Amino acid sequence: MRRSRRPSSARVDRIRPRARAAVVPILLVVLASVGSAAPALAGPRAVADPAESADPPTTVTTKAVDRRILDAGREVSEAEAERVDLARAIAEIDAAVTDLDARIAGVDADLGPARTARDDVLGRLQGRAVTVYQQRGTGLGAALSIAGPDRLAAGAHYADALAVVDAASLARLQAVVDDLEARRSGLVAERRDRTDERSRRAVELVEAQARSAVAAGRVAALGGTPVMGASPVSAGALAGWFRASGHGAVLSGGVTIEDLAALFVEEGEAVGVRADLAFAQSVVETGWFAHATDDNFAGIGACDSCDGREIAFPTPRAVVRAQMQLLRNYADADARASGLGHPPEVTLYGVDPVGAARTYDGFSAKGSAPVWDAMGGGRWATDPVYAGKVLAVAAGIRAFTPPSG
Description:
By secondary structure, the protein is mostly helical. The chain has two domains: 20-65 and 226-399, no CATH class; 90-214. It contains twelve helices and two strands; from the N terminus they run βαβααααααααααα. Strands 1-2 form a two-stranded antiparallel sheet. α8 (275-286) packs across α12 (386-399). The longest helix has 73 residues, at 149-221. Residues 1-62 and 139-149 have low confidence and may be disordered.
């Protein structure tokens, strides 16, 4: 039985000053298409606040998000979406080139012996041609006086018969060599095309990274924080920060905080969502992972009237993937299931790939929070200071310096 995140004294008939998530637009969209894939969901929900079980984050206040911040955040999302697509394309090209190299090596392994065998037969034929010429040409008189015409004729006939056999072998081996050489040429040409494409993609990737950096700088100058971007911290830094906080994570299946941090970085990079922000969100949602044995680190599916119930995911990776995919949908107005790198998480969206993609693509709040400052107050959470709580934790993560020695 999963433990409720709501303290026993909590009332469900009012909004307590805690983070609320799984905003109504998510629930309406999910209920429309997921069906039996998840329990019935309704309304905003309360989740654990670090302040109730651990050190509170720094003081946060509610503020309207400047339109300029939102516009710059959308530019970041657009550039980051392109960056992720390009990075994935380059990785696929690299894998294809590696495969082509292996196939070329395999052809070379067959081509060398085939050429050697062909050259051996060709050498024998050339040797016999010289011998027959000598026997039938300049050395004919000597051969007649020593061996006699009958023996010479028999020898010549034998040589001719061997020549016919070797000629057939030569033709067969030459066909094998020709086929292998043609295959090798085709593979080499394909490899050249792939490497040329990689060079073009690499240039485009640098350009997308530059656009993202410029837009992110503009967001930062205006006081905002983009949801999308490469993680500014490593998995090791995430785990180190958590260990240094002195809190103990209660996770399922022997999963360590190091394992979990690695999942946040991997799944974040797959969709272009910042791992530090998503990890900080989960710290807020779970009270420093104090109640996370249901493998739901983002409060997905919980609500104020659900009495602490929420979707139980089968693995930590499944919920982190669902969390990252949802955050991408909030941040990117053009987010589509086909561009996620992985299919929409089945625990949330269902096993039917067509229906899952339709649900994801039709998300009603798509692109409404390109900056984290826009979260809360109805986006992911009803708590008006939800964004500030997460941002305060994320700031602590980025400021963490591992102890020396």
